[in-house]
Give the backbone structure.
Amino acid sequence: MPKLCNQCSEPNCVQVCPVGATYKTKDGIILIDDKHCVGCGYCVQACPYGVRYIDHEGRGVADKCTWCYHRIVKGLLPACVLACPVGARIIGDLNDPESEISRIIGENRVAVLKPEIGNEPRVYYLGMDKEVR
Amino acid sequence: MHDLITQGFIYPNDVSVLWSLMIVLYPYITGLVAGAFIVSSLYHVFGDKNLKPIANLALVAAFCFILFCMTPLLFHLGKPFRCFNIMLTPNIQSAMSIFGYICFFYMAILIVEIWLVFRKDIVEQAQGGFLLKRWSYNFLALGVKDVSDESLSYDKKIIGFLAAIGIPFACILHGYVGFLFGAVKSNPWWSTPLMPIIFLLSAIISGIAILVLLYICIMKVSKKEIDTRCIQSICKYFWIFLIIDISLELLEVFNMAYEGEESWGIIYQLITGKLAFNYILVQGLIGSLVPLVLLGIVSLRKVKDSVLIVFASLSSFLILIQVFAMRWNVIIGGQLFSKSLRGFTSYTPSFLGKEGILVAIILFSLPFVALYIISLILPIFKDEGGSEVNIGEGNN
């Protein structure tokens, strides 16, 4: 099952970053300022979903999926959503009750990964098996 | 049943162990700082006169270790030249952000306390000898030449005050390291409120152990008599702290086993499989049980001086290994299983490389080199007769 950064509402990667390089935008996306990151790796350890890594061979800083923030701020779709051949991925604005995603979540049983952790992840899965970790 | 639910897969980013040997070495060294300072405070604050022979060594040793405690982190950081960001733009929600402030403030306490303890000797050394020596000691004296009884009595009050406020800072310096791990809710091997206390107690026993070993070795090399009352006294503290430390570590694992949460499956596999040698044999049986027995004997019974010294030395050596094994088992152990709770990875440190074994050996040696250099400048061991003992010199 594909996994990506959950852009949690209560991200503990933001909480643990000692220099404030990891931050949440007003859109709710978690980004990393790679000019400020010191590469300590605390955020990597803190992420319950294992989606972060330190780019050892490149910049020596933390990195992760950003939901193609550079594309969505221009009104474009993330690369994974575009690439999916069967339209299994949908991205949208949960604050808009008329959006397709709000309708799908409102009308279907959805699940998130590790809800007990308390991070309030914002990647929702339709029909996810309870055994998925 | 545990086999079934621990097979599966690991998250791709969990394949490599990120916090490596350098991150094991860092709390080991800061633990020695905290432990050595606590021993010094047992004399300066709590007035245990039996510890006088090692009180000044404890203070200087704490300073030597704190001088180099940051170096393993610098070797680990992906961007070490940005290290001051932690103090310039700290995120105060992060436990790691307080490190810079605590470390430098604590270093300042140690420097001032050491200066006050040795001020009289510095002023005396500034009176004679060749020109460079007089200039150097005059510089160290910082222009304060008053060594009257009144002045020295005032120094003692400030030393007591600094030693007293140093205790909570020593606890914070190492307690925050435990909190750093204990507050990571995503790692069930780390996440426990007991972690700061466990780290602090193991720091204290490692600090006592290094001081006992240093004292005995230095006295043997210098052919000076070992104060066995001091060793006897410190062994009692050593034993009590060891009992509390072992109890808390066992309590943590027992609690996990009893509660039997989802993560217990993989943790059980970790303890009995991947970490069996390190955790059960090295940390448990050899590193904890043997010193517990040896220190119990010397604490509860009157033994011959030679037996006391052998038991104390052996216990100290084993505890130093035990505390390193504990750091390894917590830090590396916590990264050997995936956050999927469904698989393991492995880790073998390289010998070369910036986070390798050779670098670790060199970094760990540096505080001892610093201690030797400082012993040439300050009379860390001044015996009752007023003669100095410099490390490595025989009795003249």
About this structure: DSSP finds five helices and six strands in chain A. The two ends of chain A are 9 Å apart (CA to CA). Chain A touches chain B at residues 3, 12, 14-21, 36-42, 44-56, 59-62, 117-118, 133 (CB under 8 Å).
